[in-house]
Amino acid sequence: MAVYKDDKTNTWRVIYRYTDWNGERKQSQKRGFKTKREAQAWEREQLNKAQGTKSQYRGLGSIDFQAAARSVLLVARVKDRPEIRVMAHVKSSLAPEGEPVAFELSEENGFRWIGHFDISIDDLLHGISREKKSEMAEALLLDCLAEGKYPQQILLKKAQNMGISKRVLDEAKKALNVRSVKEGNQWYWKLPDEGCSDAE
Question: How much is the pTM?
Answer without folding.
Answer: 0.46
